[in-house]
TrEMBL record:
<keyword id="KW-0732">Signal</keyword>
<protein>
    <submittedName>
        <fullName>Family 3 extracellular solute-binding protein</fullName>
    </submittedName>
</protein>
<dbReference type="Pfam" id="PF00497">
    <property type="entry name" value="SBP_bac_3"/>
</dbReference>
<feature type="domain" description="Solute-binding protein family 3/N-terminal">
    <location>
        <begin position="41"/>
        <end position="260"/>
    </location>
</feature>
<dbReference type="InterPro" id="IPR006311">
    <property type="entry name" value="TAT_signal"/>
</dbReference>
<dbReference type="InterPro" id="IPR001638">
    <property type="entry name" value="Solute-binding_3/MltF_N"/>
</dbReference>
<feature type="signal peptide">
    <location>
        <begin position="1"/>
        <end position="30"/>
    </location>
</feature>
Length: 262
């Protein structure tokens, strides 16, 4: 899932971070792994609005691929998990403010984000897709300049869409994006392809993918943690590597997204 615009710049740009009152944390005096083990819990954040990767089910539980990955990593580190849902456009600011310990929420690894956080992973690949109504006359990227394009606020897809010169409208998450497209309030949406394709198949939605070349893989998803924590980074990376090696990762991926997405 992914985040940009002035919000992205204010959250991720070094100077803008200072302007918004969010300062870069100094390197930790002690690696956070030690304190997490004492507490026995790691707090992980996600939007809760990105099915099937993370969403709230009928029992008001946060479930999906991301929570399952986070819980398995924590289990292998001897920790329990507390899941925190938060708005995507402020999620890095929350991490820097110590509201949670990691972001396991389908966050794209970008050079700009790496200025302020460290990434464990990547743990899956993301491919950008453009989706339109089945009866739409849109046939090219140029056609998109004559309509309104919906994106999730703060995602990398928002930045990309603005760079193309599209008329952009932002939303909180994928369910809202798809509803807006189906109701004709936007002419297209830009999102990672897997969750949209799964939702279209599940709901028989009148939506199709625009067949244009977008240059292959857009991003890879990583787990964001605060800088200055090499021991925590290693413990989480070791756990991720082990679950990929022993087949646990694939079991989780098959359950939530239907196959291997590394």
């Amino acid at each position: 899932m992914t985040n940009r615009r002035t919000v992205l710049k204010s959250m991720l740009g070094m100077g803008a971070l200072a302007a918004t009152g969010i300062s870069m944390p100094s390197l930790a005096l002690a690696d956070e792994l030690e304190s997490l083990k004492k507490k026995g819990v790691i707090r992980i954040a996600m939007s809760g609005a990105y099915p099937p990767f993370n969403f709230i089910n009928d029992q008001n539980q946060v479930v999906g691929f991301d929570p399952a990955i986070g819980e398995e990593i924590a289990k292998r580190m001897g920790l329990k998990v507390e899941i925190i849902t938060t708005a995507w456009d402020g999620i890095i600011g929350g991490l820097l403010a110590n509201k949670y310990d990691a972001i396991v929420g389908s966050m794209s690894i970008t050079d700009e984000r790496k200025k302020v956080v460290d990434f464990v992973g990547p743990y899956y690949r993301m491919r950008r897709g453009i989706f339109i109504a089945k009866d739409s006359k849109i046939a090219s990227l140029d056609d998109l300049k004559e309509t309104t394009v919906g994106v999730t606020l703060g995602e990398t897809h928002e930045q990309w869409a603005r760079e193309q010169g599209f008329n952009v409208r932002t939303y909180k998450g994928l369910p809202e994006l798809m509803l807006e497209l189906e109701n004709g309030r936007v002419g297209a949406i830009v999102n990672d392809d897997i969750p949209v394709l799964l939702a279209v198949a599940k709901n028989d939605a009148p939506i199709k993918q625009l067949e244009v070349d977008l240059g292959g893989v857009a991003d890879q998803a990583g787990i964001a943690i605060r800088k200055g924590n090499p021991e925590l980074h290693k413990a989480m990376q070791d756990a991720l590597d082990a679950m990929q090696a022993d087949g646990t990762y694939l079991t989780i991926a098959k359950k939530w997204v239907g196959g291997d997405i590394r």
